[in-house]
Amino acid sequence: QPGLHVVATPIGNLQDITLRALTTLAAADLIVCEDTRVTSRLTNHYGISAQLLAYNDHNAPRVRPQILERLTSGQGVALVSDAGTPMVSDPGFKLVREAIEADIPVFAAPGPSAALAALAVAGLPTDRFFFEGFLPNKDGARANRLAELKTIPATLIFYESGPRLADSLAAMATALGDRAATVARELTKAYETVYRGTLVSLATDFAIADEPKGEIVVVVGPPVEEKASADDIEASLAAALETLSVKDAAAA
Ligand code: SAM
């Protein structure tokens, strides 16, 4: 089908691909991916022989016009990333925007994303959640970003890496307070491990543990209602009731 198809691919387990993703990829005139070596593992596994073209931060300005040309000429182009859903901490946004500007239809073939997989197993509130993705690398910039997130009344989702994890958890505990948190590692893969605790307990555990290997999502619960404010409410309620009973007594 002509148009740009945004196709989600597995985040580890190759079985996590939808039937529609497979038919869309097989029918595409071109598959645009981050790294042809990574995507060819998937296409070879499923016997898909469509042409692959690398599209990443380095070559995007040069390659994007070529892709748009093929879309304008009526071809079907599939956009995938190395893993999960394109554009979720991955390239593709400008391509989609320019396709829309050129009146090219854009379709989603939805599927896995590490953010939602981690939320699904975290055991933390899901009614509101905020996706932050990767925090900045530098300490100061990371602290500033965490300060911005502190008051958001929602569960927070971060992408992390093994080498940064212990430091990031400590920075989160300092900036956000000791909230409930979950570290989800290697989801859907052989060494999948989920650690549940609080920011302080997890920061302490990972500070002394070996550096965790593989891919990691950190999910942090929403701000806890300050106990002091609950006490304040109770105190003003008690004071109000006291005033009422004094008035009642005076009226009687
Ligand atoms: N587009 C992808 C998605 O929809 O999830 C995310 C791409 S981002 C460049 C890669 C990051 O996603 C990793 O550093 C890790 O934080 C997270 N991630 C990807 N696969 C994962 C997995 N199987 N288990 C845990 N985290 C994963």
From TrEMBL:
Q: Where in the cell is it found?
A: Cytoplasm
Q: Which GO terms describe its cellular component?
A: cytoplasm
Any single GO molecular-function term of the entry would be: rRNA (cytosine-2'-O-)-methyltransferase activity
Q: Where is the Tetrapyrrole methylase domain?
A: 4-202
**Per the UniProt record, which EC number(s) apply here?**
2.1.1.198
**Keywords associated with the record:** Cytoplasm, Methyltransferase, rRNA processing, S-adenosyl-L-methionine, Transferase
Recorded superkingdom: Bacteria
Q: Which reaction does it catalyse?
A: cytidine(1402) in 16S rRNA + S-adenosyl-L-methionine = 2'-O-methylcytidine(1402) in 16S rRNA + S-adenosyl-L-homocysteine + H(+)
What is this protein's function per UniProt?
Answer: Catalyzes the 2'-O-methylation of the ribose of cytidine 1402 (C1402) in 16S rRNA.
Q: Which family does it belong to?
A: Belongs to the methyltransferase superfamily. RsmI family.
Q: What is this protein called?
A: Ribosomal RNA small subunit methyltransferase I
- Gene name for this UniProt entry: rsmI
Which part of the complete protein is shown?
A: 29 to 280 of 308
